[in-house]
Amino acid sequence: MNQFCAEALRELRIEKGLTQRELAAILYVTRSTVARWESGKRLPDAMMLTQLAEILDVDINRLLTADEQSDEGPNVILVDDRKLILNGGLPVLEEVLPHAVVKGFTDADEVIEYARANRVALAFLDIELRNTNGLELCRDLLAINPHTNVVFLTAYSGYAFDAWSTGASGFMLKPITPQGVREQLKTLRYPLRTGDEDL
Asked: pTM score > 0.70 for this model?
């Protein structure tokens, strides 16, 4: 199933002049259920999506793919406290994801600030960071947007078990390579629309 766009639901509800409570009453669900849909913490099932599309008077694909129809590609970030890794990894990500908005960070606080202002679709996180660690940063990013795909990067395979306990989508050993990134894209929890048919 395509990724449900929580932001589209909220915008369409407001356009219709409905509160969360009013929409919930029409659908016979609780207001908190609608709030969870709009925050991306829960997904409506297929029947509910059909009802939402009818109530909001939109094609169901608007709710499923609105996020992908943006003029800008998905936001992809690379986080590592070593600039050498960023300098080597960012061009690889841009090569594999030419339609994405790719940005690098060395500071976890800046990552959180960026994630609050921008919907991050995919984050490549170093596990060992200067002021925190990638495991904690992953949890923070998923609290902001549960649909963020997180792939951990490390030079040490021993971290793999801890990495999986965070809700991440993948795990890569450094260095970042085009082939490695392509392999990770195949197993994302929330697939990206890259514009490249072979991904």
From this structure: no
